[in-house]
C-alpha cells in the first residue's frame, strides 16, 4: 500500500507545483501527516521563491530510497532517531548538520540531547528532534477494559479481536512484557538472539488470537472504529485521532512502559537545498506552527512546553492516557547496532510464515 | 546502394527495440545478478560469493514461501483456466455477434481500476463488518459477523478475479479462429461431447490455453498487493519476502538473489509446462 | 407439391439408404425447407442442386442431425433416425471447408472416428492404411494437414468419413474452395471414388455442371422445395418446370403469349415481337392467350450464312438477323445474333479459324426445331 500512497503523493505534488523556473524546490521526504497543506501554503507565502514538494513514506522506505540514490533526490528527511546511526555508517546517506543554522534553543533539552548522542558520528551531529510520541496499546474501554500490558493482546478473552503491526516494536514490547530489557542485550547479540527466539515463540502462539497484522494507520483505524478489533498495538497519535471520534477508544501506555520514538530532521547526503531545509526546520519550530503540525500528526513537538502547544482536543486525549507515572516510565528506542536489524527481520519473517489460526 | 538504404532502415527500425531490451531489461537484470553475488562482510565492505543463495537454501522459511507461492500460483492458474474456459467458449462460440462485444467489454471492466482499488473492493465485501457478513446477519443466517478475509481461500479468489481476464483474452482469440464445422465434424464422426471437448476443442485451443496459463502464472507469482492485502497475517507470498529484504531489512543483496530466484523458478515452471503440453513459446504467447 | 418419382427406383432394393418423408424446417416465420420427400437407393450418387438460400444446406444438416426437422421423418436403411443424436447416425459428412483437424496429422484425422467407435489399435491401423490406399494416398499417413495440397485435403476428408463405412456420405459443396482446373479434375475423381466405395453419396451444390457430370440422380431445389428429381439428361432435356429449364444448362429465355395451341405445337409471340413455334412442357396445360415462357438451348439453334443449305429443322422456326458479337471459346463458341425485332439470340457455332467463319455484322439465318422450344405456362 505504501508505495502507491507515495506515488500518488509524488504525482499530486508534481502536478500542483507551478513550474516557476527561478524558484528553489524543497523536496521533503517525511511521514504521512508531517506536512499539512496549511503549513506548506504558509511557508510558501513566507518564502515565495521556495516550492515544497512532499513525498510520504516510512522509516524503512526513507532509508531504502536514500540508499538507492546515495542520498540524492531529497533535501530533507525525517526518519526516527534510532534509524540514523547505523544507516549512516552503512550507507553514507546523510550529511552533518550545521547546528548554528538551527534554532536549537527552543528544543526540549531532553530530546535534543537524546537525539544528539544517538546520531553523532566522528563529532558531527546528523539529526535534531522534531516530534516525539510513543508506541503502546489502545483499547475500546467498553469491551476490553482490562488491557494493561503488551501480553494482553494475546489474552484468549479477546480471541480474534486484537491486532498488531508485525515490526520491531512488537518484538521489543513483548520482550519487555516477558520481564526482559532488550536494549540492554544489544551489547550481547547471542543473548539477544535467544531472547528473540523466545519472543517469536510467544508471538507465533499468539497469532491465533490476532485478527490481522495492521500495515498502516488507515487500516488500523478502520478495524478499530468498526469494532472488528477491541485492542491493538498502536502509535499514540493514531489512538488520539480515534479518541476524537469515539471517546471509548483510549491510548494505554503498557505497564512495562510505552516505547518512545523521536522523529528527527536529517539532511540527505546529496540534498541540493540546505538553506531551504534549515528554513523549513526553523519555520515548523515556531510555536503557532507547532500547533498546526501537532494537530495534523497527533504527536508532541520536541520543544520546551511541547505538550502545551497541542491543540485542545489532542491535549484532552493525552491527559486521558498519561499519568505522571507513565511519563516517568517511558522507554526510549535505543540505537540499532549493526546486525540487529537482520536478526529482528528474520524473527519477523519466522512469525509471518508460521501457520497460525 | 539500395541495399545500404535497406540495411540502414532496418537498423533504424530495430534500434528502439534493441535499446529497450538492453537498457530496460538486460542491464537491470545483469545488475541484479551482480548485486545478488555480493556478500556483505562488514559495513560498506562486500565480497564476491554465493552467500545470499546459500542463505536461501539454508533457511526453510524462504524456500517454503517460494514453493507455497509457486503451488498457489499453479492452483490459481488452474482455477482461472477452469472458470475462464467456459466463459471464453461462450463468448467465442455461443454468444451472438452483438452480445459478444458487450461480454468482452464486461470482462475488461475490472482492468479499468487499479489492483489496489480492486483489493480494497474485496476487503469491503469480505471483512467482518463488510457487505457479505452484514447481509448474512440481516438474513438471520448467522448472529455474529464472519471474517472472510485473511485466509488462503480469499487470496486465491482475489487472485483468480484479478488475473482471469488474461486467461480469457487469448482463449477467446484462439477459439474464435476455430470454425463451427470443426466441432460438428467431431460429432459427425462419432464423438460424444466429452470426446469433442477432449480431442478437438482443447487440442485446438491449446496454444491459447498455454499462452493464458503462462501469463496468468507469471502475473500471479509476481503479484504483491492482492496476497498481502487479502491474506493479511497468513499471506506469506514470495514477493513480500523480496520487498522485506529490500525495504525493511536493507538487505539488497539478498533481495536481488530472491528476485533472481523467483524469475528462475517461474521460468522453470513455464518451461516445464511447455514441455509437458508439447507447445513452444512461438506458437503460444507469440501468436495470441 | 411432392415428388416421389418412382422412375429412378430401377435399381432399388426394398430398403433405401436414405429416405425423407415430408420434411419441413421453419426458422421463426421463415420456412427453409418445405415438405420435401425423396428416397435414395443404395450406391447412388445423388445431388441436390439449387441456388444459394434454397434450403439445401438446411436439408443436409437435418440429415446429419445438426438440425431437427419441424415436421416429417428421416430414415436411414429403413430406420427412423429423428431421435438419434448426430454422433450416433451412420451418416458422415464432408464439410464445405473440409473441417480437417489441424492439430492432428492425416493418420489421426482418419483414426479419430474409429477411436470414437472404440476400435482396437491394430484394427485402426489396418483400416486407416486401407482407406488411404483406396484414395491413392498411401504414403501420407504422417503428413500434417497444412502440408497437403487442396486435392489431397479433399481426398483425406473423404477418406476420414469412408473409414467408418457410412450408410450415406453427405458432401456440402466441397469443391467450392478449389480453383477451376482442380475442380474439374476433382469432379471426375469424386465420381470414381463413389464407384469404388459403392456408398450412397448425397452431394450438395449450386453448380449445375458439377451436379450433371457426377450424379446418377439430381434433385433441383428452389425456395425450400424440390422442383424435379431425375437423371441429369432428364432434367436437361425434359425439365418439368420453368425454374429447372432455366437453372439447368444455358438457354435463350423469352417471355411471351400463346397465340394458338394445337396438338402439334404452340404458336407464341414473345414480348419483343419474335414469333416462335414451341412444344408444351411441364404439367400445367397451356391455354390460348396465356402468358408463357420459352427456353431454347443455344446448341439446338443452327446459324447459317445466306446461301448455305438450310438445315432440316427449317420451316419450324426460322429467323434472320445480324451477328452482334462472336464469343470465341474453342469448341463452345457462340454468336449473339440481333433479330429485326431487337431480340438477342444466342446460338452455338463452330469456329474453325478459316475464312468461312462468321464475323460481326454478317447477316445470318437461325433455325431450330419446334421440339427444342420448351414452352411453360407461367
Summary of the model, kept short:
The complex is a heterotrimer of chains A (357), B (288) and C (378). In chain A, 44% of the residues lie in helices and 18% in strands.
Secondary structure layout plus pairing:
The complex is a heterotrimer of chains A (357), B (288) and C (378).
Chain A: H1 2-16, E1 24-31, H2 37-46, E2 50-57, H3 59-69, E3 76-77, H4 85-91, E4 94-95, H5 109-118, E5 120-121, E6 124-125, E7 128-140, E8 162-164, H6 168-177, H7 182-185, H8 189-206, E9 210-213, H9 217-226, E10 231-235, H10 236-245, E11 249-252, E12 259-265, E13 267-268, H11 274-284, H12 287-297, E14 300-301, H13 312-321, H14 324-328, E15 331-332, H15 340-353
Chain B: H1 2-36, E1 38-42, E2 45-48, H2 51-58, H3 60-94, H4 97-108, H5 115-126, H6 131-139, H7 152-176, H8 180-188, H9 193-221, H10 225-231, H11 238-248, H12 252-277
Antiparallel strand pairs in B: 1-2
Helix pairs in contact in B: 1-12, 2-12, 3-7, 3-9, 5-10, 7-9, 7-10, 8-9, 9-12, 11-12
Chain C: E1 18-27, E2 30-40, E3 45-49, H1 56-64, E4 71-76, E5 79-80, E6 91-94, H2 106-116, H3 121-134, H4 150-162, E7 168-172, H5 180-197, E8 200-205, H6 208-214, E9 217-222, E10 225-230, H7 232-237, H8 242-247, E11 252-262, E12 265-270, E13 275-280, E14 291-296, E15 302-304, E16 317-327, E17 334-338, E18 344-348, E19 363-368, E20 374-377
Parallel strand pairs in C: 3-8, 3-9, 6-7, 7-8, 13-20
Antiparallel strand pairs in C: 1-2, 1-4, 4-5, 9-10, 11-12, 11-14, 12-13, 14-20, 15-19, 16-17, 16-19, 17-18
Helix pairs in contact in C: 2-3, 2-4, 3-4
Description:
The complex is a heterotrimer of chains A (357), B (288) and C (378). With 357 residues, chain A is α/β, with parallel strands linked by helices. Chain A has helices at 2-16, 37-46, 59-69, 85-91, 109-118, 168-177, 182-185, 189-206, 217-226, 236-245, 274-284, 287-297, 312-321, 324-328, 340-353, and strands at 24-31, 50-57, 76-77, 94-95, 120-121, 124-125, 128-140, 162-164, 210-213, 231-235, 249-252, 259-265, 267-268, 300-301, 331-332. In chain A, the strands form 4 sheets. In chain A, strands 7, 8, 9, 10, 11, 12, 14 and 15 form an 8-stranded mixed beta sheet that branches. In chain A, strands 2-1-3 form a 3-stranded parallel beta sheet. In chain A, strands 4-13 form a two-stranded antiparallel sheet. In chain A, helix 9 (217-226) packs across helix 10. Chain B has 288 residues and is mainly α. Chain B has one domain: Orthogonal Bundle (MetI-like fold), CATH 1.10.3720.10. In chain B, 76% of the residues lie in helices and 3% in strands. Chain B has helices at 2-36, 51-58, 60-94, 97-108, 115-126, 131-139, 152-176, 180-188, 193-221, 225-231, 238-248, 252-277; strands at residues 38-42, 45-48. The mean pLDDT of chain B is 88. Chain C is built from 8 helices and 20 strands. With 378 residues, chain C is α+β, with helices and mostly antiparallel strands. Chain C folds into 2 domains: 6-244, P-loop containing nucleotide triphosphate hydrolases (Rossmann fold), CATH 3.40.50; 250-377, OB fold (Dihydrolipoamide Acetyltransferase, E2P), CATH 2.40.50. The longest helix of chain C is centred in the middle third of the chain and has 18 residues, at 180-197. The model of chain C is unreliable at 1-13 (pLDDT under 50). The interface between B and C is medium-sized, with 18 and 26 residues.
